[in-house]
């Protein structure tokens, strides 16, 4: 297949692009930064520089590529700019879908999240509605996710991957990144809310496998949803950080998600089925 990867130099893209190339696909890797061109070329893809907010430029590159599939892995989270990330989900996704449709592309695989479900007592399946009635500030995130999924659903063959919280190389959970620093400073309390994680290697593998998946929405999370009372002390200990304090309570929608559909129906088997082994491996 000829595949256009938007966000080829990101944490997922850097792992996914070589896997696509090894599988025999012809990959065009898009980045908005000229500084990432050599990286994308070294990953085995043909690099293109384009801004997802520049409709004309984006359309030109997608039309030139004429891809069989577009993989949307665009985010803007390096500086924790959540407003910029919502803009990518809303405006950027619309532009990317418009360009893909104009190029005659049928399939799009897109990155969504598995913590946008409405509140409930147990981990969510894909059938649970998004939390569209959430109050601010969560409402901004939900609106961005809902817009992304609605836009991608205009494609003839949309596959929406609802990823758990990323950890591993290139994420906030690395040794010297934001989460690790906050934990070392004792700024993150252990609470009761449930999180589902996914290692970036497993996230990338899911996107590659999704080339053969039917249209629909799929949770890509590990096997062990857990409260931060469980995972945060383990993470802190691996960092050599102080044990976190405990504060009762949880944020809205912190219920985790189930990967039954991906595992049993689509054959996705995570390399890191639990954050326990994943954290230990990532923080060695």
Q: Which terms summarize this structure?
A:
single chain; 284 residues; alpha/beta; Rossmann fold; seven-stranded parallel beta sheet; 11 strands; globular
Describe the structure.
With 284 residues, the protein is of the alpha/beta class. The protein has a domain at 2-172 and 197-223: Rossmann fold (3-Layer(aba) Sandwich). The chain contains ten helices and eleven strands. The protein has helices spanning 13-22, 37-42, 55-65, 82-102, 138-152, 178-184, 200-209, 228-239, 260-265, 275-282; strands at residues 2-6, 26-31, 46-49, 69-72, 107-113, 157-163, 165-167, 194-195, 197-199, 216-220, 226-227. The strands form three sheets. Strands 3-2-1-4-5-6-10 form a seven-stranded parallel β-sheet, sandwiched between helices. It is globular and about 55 Å long. The mean pLDDT is 96.
Question: What can be said about this structure in brief?
Answer:
The protein has 284 residues and is of the alpha/beta class. It has helices at 13-22, 37-42, 55-65, 82-102, 138-152, 178-184, 200-209, 228-239, 260-265, 275-282; strands at 2-6, 26-31, 46-49, 69-72, 107-113, 157-163, 165-167, 194-195, 197-199, 216-220, 226-227.
């Amino acid at each position: 297949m000829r595949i256009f990867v938007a966000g080829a130099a990101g944490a997922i893209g850097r792992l996914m692009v070589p896997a696509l190339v090894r599988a025999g696909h012809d990959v065009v890797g898009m980045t908005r930064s000229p500084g990432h061109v050599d990286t994308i070329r070294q990953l085995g893809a043909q690099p293109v520089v384009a801004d997802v907010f520049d409709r004309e430029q984006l359309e030109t590159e997608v039309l030139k590529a004429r891809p069989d599939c577009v993989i949307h892995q665009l985010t803007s989270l390096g500086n924790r700019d959540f407003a910029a990330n919502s803009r990518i989900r809303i405006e950027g996704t619309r532009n990317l879908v418009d360009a893909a449709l104009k190029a005659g592309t049928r399939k799009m695989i897109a990155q969504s999240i598995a913590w946008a479900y409405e509140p409930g007592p147990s981990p969510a399946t894909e059938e649970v509605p998004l939390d569209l009635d959430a109050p601010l500030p969560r409402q901004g995130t939900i609106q961005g996710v809902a817009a992304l999924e609605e836009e991608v659903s205009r494609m003839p063959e949309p596959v929406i991957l609802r990823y758990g919280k990323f950890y591993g190389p290139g994420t906030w959970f690395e040794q010297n990144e934001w989460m690790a620093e906050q934990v070392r400073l004792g700024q993150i309390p252990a609470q009761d809310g449930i999180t589902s994680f996914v290692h970036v290697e497993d996230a990338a593998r899911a996107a590659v496998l999704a080339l053969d998946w039917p249209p629909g929405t799929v949770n890509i999370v590990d096997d062990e949803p857990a409260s931060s009372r469980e995972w945060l002390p383990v993470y802190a200990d691996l960092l050599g950080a102080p044990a976190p304090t405990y504060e009762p309570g949880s944020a809205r929608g912190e219920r985790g998600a189930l990967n039954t559909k991906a595992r049993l129906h689509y054959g996705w088997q995570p390399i890191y089925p639990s954050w326990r082994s994943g954290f230990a491996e990532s923080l060695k």
